[in-house]
Design a protein that fits this description.
Elements lengths: L1 H31 L4 H20 L3 H18 L7 H24 L8 H8 L6 E2 L3 E2 L71 H5 L9 H27 L3 H25 E3 L1 H4 L2 H12 L3 E6 L4 E3 H22 L3 H6 L6 E10 L2 E8 L6 H10 L5 H6 L2 H5 L22 H11 L3 E7 L3 E9 L4 E9 L2 E6 L3 E8 L1 H5 L1 E4 L2 E6 L2 E7 H4 L11 E9 L2 E7 L1 E9 L13 E6 L5 E5 L1 H7 L14 H9 L1 E10 L3 E6 L5 E5 L5 E3 L2 E6 L2 E7 H6 L10 E8 L2 E7 L1 E10 L1 E4 L5 E7 L2 E6 L1 H8 L3 H10 L1
Parallel strand pairs: 4-6, 11-20, 15-17, 22-32, 26-28
Antiparallel strand pairs: 1-2, 3-5, 6-7, 7-9, 8-9, 10-11, 10-18, 12-16, 13-14, 14-15, 16-17, 19-20, 21-22, 21-29, 23-27, 24-25, 25-26, 27-28, 30-31, 31-32
Helix pairs in contact: 1-2, 1-4, 2-3, 3-4, 3-5, 4-5, 7-8, 10-11, 11-16
């Protein structure tokens, strides 16, 4: 725990130093306006955070000092006292004292020997001479705030004092001694108080060595800026590739040397920027202990969660993408995997179940395992339910291996639950896991032994931005294959090329070291025209998809290089054979192959959404169930509505005084144009026009350079779920009703509402398109 303790203390020193600098400014500003409730609340939260974290870290002297200051600040916040020059000086003296303690902590790991009783006494005197609410002087003596001796480490007093962990910051180790006792619970890193409004505004004031050594050697950067830098590095990599391509044919030694130097610097810069985006997977896992505890209580089970490899790092974009799949998997392990305490005792197991989350790097990927020691998968029940639901035929089910049967739980809508509950039975959990992991180029596998438990294995790439890839050609076009899927390259020539390829039951195979390797001809899989083939040469790229190996036959193999992944446009997102695009060194675009999609299309791997044998009624139902991103909002007091996120250009807050009237309708000046506003409460609910005092919540819809704003009561959330229309529209302006997050939600008819309020809106757009 020593390394975690040191990291926690470094983060605490950094956060607290930034907060104290902000407090200096806030107190001076508050003295000018003592009745500013927002600034008072921010100061109180900041001191409260320092006090709570100090108590957690067993820093008794710091906790005592902050506690007295917090108690007095609470009196100002409640309006019992009014701040004046004398009380401001006392509170600033507390800030300086906290700085000196932090200075000592950084230098020696101890709180120091300085006696802060005079400062505490000064704080305790606040209010004895101050007026109450400005009416009369306080005639009674205010007792000093109670002192809490932190003899034992304890958790913060309230959720506000138990902040979540921020991104780690590289600071030289500070403590050599005085670590909290090892018996305390796993540390929760402190976070900057809400009072810290982007703390690095201007220069930090030189008040202590802590400010000089910590705040000046660390900086907070907005995530959007990091993403922008990452995009620029990606463009630099593309330019580097182009220059390297020219350098390979150049005879100018100076140019070749410069291009090689550029290559080296670009690689180092790329690695440095990538490191800034890397975060430990523990940032995702830190919420699972609470999830497991609450879910186990609901299920009436006892479950222990163990975490291994919390410091395994992933790109931030990957971290965001795996949050929901991992949550589904953990919930599934508690709900379906772990048996009740009674059943476990009968089976000779401990009453408390065990779930292990393990993460580790291997082969350029991150492996995540979610294991439980529960009852395992009832394969016979899965097989029978699959036949019952029409997912497979009885003959096919009888021939399936245990592994293939286990993978049926990833089928859309599959569930063995006898009844639907708040926790399970709808058959969307494991399908979501597999779908979302495959979206980021990962794979999912499952293994289980009846009565012993189940292990879900997830393999995901380290990053999605810049990846090494093999460039191949077929049909005159170039394609990139992610190197993470590449196993080996095989080149057959002469007689071996003519006779080494075998055909069996309509399938093309190659016997690779005694094992039959299914072959997929790339130009056939993509529907490209068949080129003139040299029958004396056969290039095979051996790939792995969903733990299955197959060979991809291509016309030529070029080279491996780092490529920048560019997402496909929404018109091409439905093509399962492609995962993205990249720009090559000569400026031409090459498509990145989706290895799993090609394998499924060629029937090398069974598609996870094979509906060929689902009966007609089931197929129609499944086809109605569309996974879509929706923006949820509220109209009136309780009317809940949604709009497809793809139709939302921007979300805006508009001050009521900026709304004007023109041609009998509300408008606002917006981005150099006039934006018409439509009140959905009036159009949908029939409410009368009313004056607004709070900022208007506006959803902006744009098409072909024209925009219109929908005024709503409140923006609620953005969700992505399988949406199934439950009922048709009952009034104008609606497409129908759906169930989202377990609640009935109306779908807004965007075009219908616009046509009803501006019949010429789409006519003008059609005219623009025709022109």
């Amino acid at each position: 725990m020593a390394a975690e303790d040191d990291e926690l203390m470094r983060e605490f020193l950094l956060e607290s130093t930034e907060n104290l600098n902000q407090l200096d400014r806030d107190f001076v500003a508050l003295e000018q306006d003592p009745r500013d409730p927002a600034r008072l609340a921010a100061i109180f939260r900041c001191v409260h955070t320092i006090k709570g974290t100090a108590g957690f870290l067993a820093l008794s002297k710091l906790e005592r000092l902050a506690h007295v200051g917090e108690s007095q600040l609470n009196r100002f916040r409640e309006g019992e006292l009014i701040l004046d020059n004398k009380s401001t000086s006392a509170l600033l003296a507390m800030v300086d004292s906290v700085r000196r303690i932090l200075d000592s902590l950084e230098a020696t790991g101890q709180e120091g020997d300085e006696d802060f009783s005079p400062v505490i006494d000064m704080l305790s005197q606040i209010g004895k001479e101050l007026p109450k609410r400005g009416i009369a002087a306080v005639s009674h003596s205010v007792p000093p705030a109670p002192v809490v001796a932190a003899l034992e480490p304890r958790a913060p007093e309230s959720p506000a004092a138990a902040p979540a962990a921020p991104a780690p910051v590289a600071i030289p180790p500070a403590r050599a001694a005085s670590k909290p006792p090892s018996a305390r619970p796993a540390p929760v890193a402190p976070v900057a108080a809400e009072a810290n409004g982007m703390a690095n505004e201007g220069d930090h004031e030189a008040g202590s060595k802590a400010a000089a050594s910590i705040a000046d050697t660390s900086i907070r950067v907005d995530v959007s800026l990091l993403d922008r830098v990452m995009n620029l590095v990606g463009e630099l990599v593309l330019a580097r590739n182009q220059i390297m391509q020219y350098g390979a044919t150049s005879k100018d030694a100076g140019f070749v040397n410069a291009s090689q130097r550029l290559n080296l610097l670009t690689t180092e810069l790329q690695a440095g920027v990538m490191k800034t985006r890397m975060q430990p997977i523990g940032n995702v896992w830190n919420r699972f202990p609470r999830i497991v505890r609450d879910l186990a209580n609901v299920c009436g089970k006892k479950v222990n969660l163990e975490l291994d490899g919390t410091d395994t790092e992933l790109d931030r974009s990957i971290i965001e993408a795996i949050k929901d799949p991992l949550t589904h998997a953990v919930r599934n392990a508690v709900d379906h995997g772990i048996e009740s305490a009674e059943r476990r005792r009968v089976a000779g197991k401990a009453a408390a179940g065990r779930i292990l989350l393990r993460a580790y790097h291997e082969g350029g990927q991150v492996n995540i395992e979610i294991s439980d020691d529960g009852g395992g998968l009832a394969l016979d029940k899965i097989r029978a339910r699959s036949v019952q639901r029409g997912l497979v035929t009885a003959e096919r089910a009888a021939r399936m291996s245990d592994r293939e049967v286990a993978h049926l739980i990833f089928s859309p809508g599959f569930s063995t639950a006898e009844q639907v509950t708040n926790l399970s039975g709808r058959g969307v959990g494991m399908d979501v896991v597999k779908t979302n992991i495959e979206k980021i180029g990962g794979t999912v596998d499952i293994s289980s032994r009846l009565g012993e438990g189940t292990t879900l294995k997830i393999k995901i790439p380290l990053t999605l931005a810049i990846i090494p890839a093999l460039v191949v050609t077929t049909g005159g076009d170039r394609f990139a294959i992610p190197q993470v899927n590449l196993l080996e390259l095989v080149r057959l020539e002469g007689e071996q090329a003519r006779r080494g390829i075998e055909r069996l039951h309509g399938s093309t195979l190659y016997r690779l070291r005694g094992n039959l390797l299914p072959l997929v001809v790339l130009n056939q899989a993509l529907g490209l025209p068949k080129p003139a083939v040299d029958e004396d040469v056969c290039n095979i790229v051996v790939l792995q998809a969903d733990d299955r190996q197959f060979g991809l036959v291509v016309d030529g193999i070029n080279d491996t290089e780092e490529i920048v992944v560019k997402p496909l446009g929404k018109e091409l997102k439905g093509l399962s054979s492609f995962a993205g695009a990249t720009i090559m060194g000569d400026g031409r675009v090459a498509l990145i192959l989706d290895v799993l999609g090609i394998a499924q299309r060629a029937n090398v791997v069974s598609p996870s959404r094979d509906r060929a044998i689902v009966d007609a009624s089931q197929r129609q139902q499944l086809e109605r169930d569309v996974r879509e991103a929706l923006l949820l909002f509220r109209l009136g007091e309780s009317s809940r509505m949604a709009i497809p996120l793809s139709m939302v250009a921007r979300l805006e807050e508009i001050a009521p005084e900026k709304v004007e009237r023109a041609a009998g309708r509300d408008v606002v000046q917006y981005r150099g144009a006039i934006l018409p506003l439509i009140s959905l409460s009036r159009e949908i609910l029939g409410e009368t026009r009313r004056e607004h005092t709070a900022p208007l919540q506006v959803i902006v819809y744009s098409e072909q350079g024209r925009s219109i704003g929908f005024v709503v009561e409140q923006i609620l959330d953005v969700v992505e779920e399988v949406i199934s229309v439950r009922s048709q529209a009952t009034r104008d302006g609606l497409l129908g009703s759906v169930v989202v997050q377990g609640r009935v939600t109306d779908l807004l008819d965007v075009h219908g509402v616009i046509r009803r309020t501006d019949a010429t809106f789409f006519d003008r757009i059609q005219a623009v398109r025709a022109a």
